[in-house]
Amino acid sequence: MAVLITILSSTMRVFAGLGLATVISICLGVAIRYFRLIEHLTLPTITLLAPVSPVAWLPVAIFLFGIGNGPAIFMVFVALFFHMILATITQIDGVNRNYINVARTMGASKWQIYRRVILPAILPGLLVVLRFNLFGAWMVVLIAEATGVGFGLGQVIMMARNTFNPSLVFFTIVIIGLLGFGCDFLLRQIQRRILYWLPNRTAGLADV
Amino acid sequence: MSEPAICCRGVGKVWAAGTERAHEALRGIDLIVEDGEFVVVLGPSGCGKSTLLYLIAGLEETSAGEIAAHGVPVTGPAPDRSLIFQETSLFPWLSVWQNVSFGLSLRGVGKAEQREISRQVLFRTGLAETFDKRPHELSGGMRQRVAVARALAMRPKVLLMDEPFAALDVQTRAKMQGFLLDVWRESGASVIFVTHHIDEAMALADRVVVCTARPGRIKDIVTIDRPRPRDPFASEAVALRRKLTELLSAEVDRAFAEQENVAIA
């Protein structure tokens, strides 16, 4: 039971952080390309903060959210957010010009081009980004939990370390590995559903 | 209708104007395309013939001169001037019929009507059985036919084609030319077709516009008034091929010489 609660709480933090980072970064990334003003207001700051290690955010997380789920989720969020924004922008810039030109010759407005062409065109790339960041999220959540959130897999590792219990360390490592693998599998299934138009073999990795 | 389908007067285009990388793609293009005419623009690679199509389509702005479509100045893209690209430009996330009706859906045409128009256009272009397929399930030639069907669904007055068959094998290409001629005759649209392929130009064109190497200018305009389908081995065809080859090879030589100069400098 205790194992289950531990696993669930870590998983929940991973997904909460990943979900928040995904939604906000995609929205902001698209907005940056759509509105020049937003680009000028936010992009320099984002590029400035992107190389900062998530560990550096740890004190900030604790100032802001104290102890509990809050800082752990914030850590996951902050570790992924900046990279995902930059990835979204790169994806948008990489959209085949022909797609956009076809839509333009048919009289599409800017909004229609974004909604009907750019969004579906960047989706495969975004899902690949999401898969890579899922692993990142699992790495960060341990660091966050190790600092005293109360429970979670990171706490277990810290406890094992403090009690010189290597078998517990490796047991936890195996659990994390399995969880990461399971999450990735889940995401691949979702990917296959959403990206129905890609041939299965290359799902997500083919350039569109 | 007295106004020509497309009228270019002194059209020029400089890419990246005002920067170090500025280069002139087109200069002083005067070209009139009548309603229902099939014009092929023939030129060496990189002579700006694609640029001309982009300008006529309204996707890029001219640096000099002006372009009018049916007497109305071109200021931006319009659905009655459809551009068909060399590479596949079908949206892979849409089925064939959704691709064909994409332009209609932008205008807010109802779903049922979109399906109906797609069905008709696909039937007319001999693609009825691809209706529910996805682009990746089709061969290269089929995809280009769907791209043509998609353009036709907009009832264009002018079809602009940028080396649409260049990526296809020779046999498919010959078939596609026949297909295009059928479509052209039936739709009554004017066609401006860009290619570097002399045989293609001879099979298709009412008039062949031969372009010079960069910056692209019109070197000569050759009228072909033989009935289609044309025998590529008839004696007039051989003479014509020789003439076009000579016109073109001089430009290819010039283009190569220029590239070598750039490489040495």
Summary of the model, kept short:
The complex is a heterodimer of chains A (208) and B (265). Chain A is built from eight helices and no strands.
Description:
Chain A is mainly α. Helices cover 79% and strands 0% of the residues of chain A. Chain A has eight helices and no strands. Chain A starts with a helix and ends in a 14-residue tail after the last helix. Helices cover 38% and strands 23% of the residues of chain B. Chain B contains eight helices and ten strands. In chain B, the strands form two sheets. Chain B has a six-stranded mixed beta sheet, with helices on both faces. Chain B has a four-stranded antiparallel beta sheet with strand order 2-1-4-5, with helices on one face. Chains A and B meet through helix 5 and helix 6 of A and strand 6 and helix 3 of B.
Could you name the key traits of this structure?
heterodimer; A: 208 residues; mainly alpha; 8 helices; B: 265 residues; alpha/beta; six-stranded mixed sheet; globular
